[in-house]
């Protein structure tokens, strides 16, 4: 039987989860203090997902970089591919929170969206 230890990141409690699995099937989850911990452990072992946060170039803005993130979690295995897609992206100011910078990044169904409103340089 395989044993996995992880810390749940669903809420500020940070429960220490212990997961026992056999043949790819989860047999037991302990240490969670809420149902979200159980769901997190199952997803983390079978299909880990993450929200990606980074910045892109902002042309003519009050500051040179625009913070962005994925609109929802994407497969953890695609994080670096997502970052690579954004390496040469530049956006013209102004930008507003929620502006879609890239639609359906890497075919994941997640958009890259602005997370800050930044006006044009004076």
How would you explain this protein's 3D organization?
By secondary structure, the chain is an alpha+beta fold. It folds into two domains: 2-46, N-terminal domain of TfIIb, CATH 2.20.25; 53-114, CPE0013-like fold. 16% of the residues lie in helices and 37% in strands. The strands form three sheets. Strands 8-5-6-10-9 form a five-stranded mixed β-sheet, with no helix packed on it. A three-stranded antiparallel β-sheet has the order 1-2-3, with helices on one face.
Tell me the structural class.
Answer: alpha+beta
What name does CATH use for the topology of the largest domain?
Answer: CPE0013-like fold
**How does the major sheet shape up?**
5 strands, mixed
Strand residue content: 35-45%
Number of helices in the DSSP assignment: 2
Helix content: 10-25%
| β-strand number | 10
The tally of domains stands at 2
- Named at the architecture level, the CATH assignment of the largest domain is Roll
- Distance between termini? 63 Å
Question: Spans with pLDDT under 50 lasting ≥5 residues?
Answer: none
Instruction: Using the alpha-carbon principal axes, give the shape.
Output: elongated
Sheet with most strands: strand arrangement: 8-5-6-10-9
Overall pLDDT confidence: 95
The radius of gyration is: 19 Å
Assembly of the depicted chains: single chain
So what's the CATH class of the largest domain?
A: Alpha Beta
CATH homologous superfamily name of the largest domain? Answer: CPE0013-like
Could you give the order of the helices and strands?
A: EEEHEEEEHEEE
């Amino acid at each position: 039987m395989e044993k996995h230890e992880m810390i749940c990141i669903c809420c500020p409690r940070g429960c220490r989860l212990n997961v026992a699995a056999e043949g790819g099937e989860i047999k037991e989850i302990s240490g969670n203090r809420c149902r979200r911990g159980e769901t997190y452990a199952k997803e983390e072992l079978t299909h880990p997902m993450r929200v990606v946060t980074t910045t892109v170039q902002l042309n003519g803005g009050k500051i040179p970089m625009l913070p962005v993130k994925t609109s929802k979690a994407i497969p953890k295995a695609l994080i670096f591919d997502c970052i690579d897609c954004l390496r040469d992206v530049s956006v013209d100011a102004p930008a507003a929170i929620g502006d879609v910078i890239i639609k359906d990044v890497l075919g994941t169904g997640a958009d890259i969206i602005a997370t800050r409103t930044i006006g044009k340089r004076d």
